[in-house]
Specification:
It is built from 12 helices and 16 strands. It is of the alpha/beta class and 422 residues long. Helix 3 runs antiparallel to helix 4. The termini are far apart. The structure holds adenosine-5'-diphosphate and aspartyl phosphate.
Length: 422
């Protein structure tokens, strides 16, 4: 039996009607059985849903935002479908359901659970539109609700996968369908043991593709992007980038750990464990090879730049005239863990601990209030964390020109700088 192929199309590859048409052409030339297509929300719809949630939380009017979001999806449909097509009432129906959810009360306490009930609408809409369009093009695919496959715990917004249950569902429910037809489903969303919607963390659709691939013992995963593959820096920020023809799992995982947003950080591990290759390819040039990530890659180390924006540097100084000890670090990590905050950089001195974290709604104030008894705290927001792997020291100073450096750390192959533009 042929092994399953998993394709993942992110927001950029379904951002408008021409993009959906392009996706259909990619599928047309590659369609076969044992084929899973994972799609994300269209364009920046998830950000727009987050904006609606923020307004709702602040008790402000979000009706205009909902209208714009609905108009955006209907305008795409008008370009893709003939008048009277079934997709139009389906889209309307999703917005009725969304409105119904938005009529429920929200508070800071139930925010994460509420968020997961709302935020997945982007994927539900997108997957319906793409599925109907493929069928209109005689590319028959079945629509599958990912929440019936991806089983998670109840850690809303950052749900952890129950691999055993998910595998069972994929083998029992998805595999038989795949032998008949290709299946199209959503990235990013799952459900907990009570059937409540959960999400895997922002940009988690790449991870969904990896979860499904591992659970189906797939042959490969391809994630289709608006870049030629994995480059040694983000081409939207840096010039003269170089494409990696191949990377081994460890190199790729390291890049994602430091924040190379082209691949979601959780994607590599399940694929590496199962020995499933990951292709990162351009949906604009689908016949080009892109980057192959697998275990036998022979890539020479190349200076690689990774930039993480919206960083907060928090400096915690001990107040009891002692020096930094394990107990202080433990205390800080305990709180970070409770708030599900990951440390992107850590530095200790005799009397202080400096940590760099992502900016996240409510989290900084919660961290400060939890630790204020033990430490004197100062923080700087709006910073960038620059990581350079295998730095080329001759060209390195250019990266700091015009920037104020807040924190610096280097090992043999890695330099990290926290900076802000002057
Ligand atoms: N090292 C890198 N190589 C290629 N692209 C990168 C890299 N680092 C960041 N990117 C960015 O990742 C983007 C693609 O990822 P993403 O926006 O998450 O895609 P999608 O949401 O469509 O799946 C590119 O447009 C590029 O700006
Ligand atoms: N739509 C979700 C999930 C996702 O993975 O999207 P994308 O594939 O466009 O990064 C988000 O924006 O977070």
């Amino acid at each position: 039996m042929t092994k399953t192929l998993v394709y993942k199309f992110g927001g950029a590859s379904v951002k408008d009607a021409p993009a959906v048409k392009n996706l259909a052409e990619i599928i047309r030339n590659r369609l076969r059985n044992n084929f899973v297509i994972v799609v994300s929300a269209m364009g920046k719809s998830t950000n727009q849903l987050e904006a609606i949630l923020s307004l709702k939380l602040a008790n402000q009017d979000f009706s205009q935002n909902s209208t714009i979001l609905k108009g955006f999806h209907l305008a795409i449909c008008s370009e893709l479908f003939p008048e009277g097509h079934v997709i139009f009432p389906k889209v309307e129906n999703y917005f009725i359901q969304l409105q119904h959810e938005l009529n429920q009360p929200i508070s800071k306490e139930n925010y994460d659970e509420y968020y997961d009930r709302i935020i997945g609408f982007g994927e539900l809409l997108s997957s319906r539109i793409v599925m109907e369009y493929l069928c209109l093009q005689n590319l028959l695919v079945l629509w599958q609700d990912a929440r019936e496959l991806i089983c998670t715990d109840s850690d809303f917004r950052f749900a952890r996968v129950d691999w055993g249950k998910t595998r069972k569902k994929c083998q029992a429910q998805l595999k038989p369908k795949l032998e008949q037809f290709p299946v199209l489903t959503q990235g990013f969303i799952g459900s907990d043991s009570k059937g409540r919607p959960t999400t895997l963390g922002r940009e988690g659709s790449d991870f969904t593709a990896a979860i499904l691939a591992a659970s189906l013992d797939a042959g490969s995963v391809t994630i289709w992007k608006d870049v030629p593959g994995v480059l040694n820096a983000d081409p939207k920020i840096f010039n003269d980038t170089t494409l990696f023809a191949e990377l081994d799992y460890q190199q790729a995982a390291q890049m994602t750990f430091y924040g190379a947003s082209v691949i979601h950080p959780k994607t590599i591990k399940p694929l590496a464990n199962a020995g499933i290759p990951l292709f990162v390819k351009s949906f604009l040039h689908p016949d080009e090879a892109g980057t192959k990530i697998h275990s036998q890659a022979k890539a020479d180390p190349l200076p690689t730049i990774i930039l993480k924006k919206d960083q907060i540097l928090v400096s915690l100084k001990v107040t009891d005239f002692t020096f930094i000890e394990e107990k202080h670090i433990h205390r800080v990590y305990e709180q970070l863990q409770a708030l599900k905050l990951r440390v992107n950089m850590l530095q200790t001195s005799a009397i202080s601990i400096s940590i760099v974290i992502d900016s996240q709604l409510f989290k900084l104030e919660q961290l400060l209030s939890a630790l204020k008894k033990d430490f004197e705290i100062r923080y700087n927001e709006g910073l960038e964390l620059l990581t350079v792997l295998y730095p080329d020291m001759a060209s390195f100073p250019q990266l700091l020109e015009g920037y104020q450096v807040y924190l610096e750390q280097s090992t043999r192959h890695t330099v990290q700088i926290v900076r802000r533009i002057n």
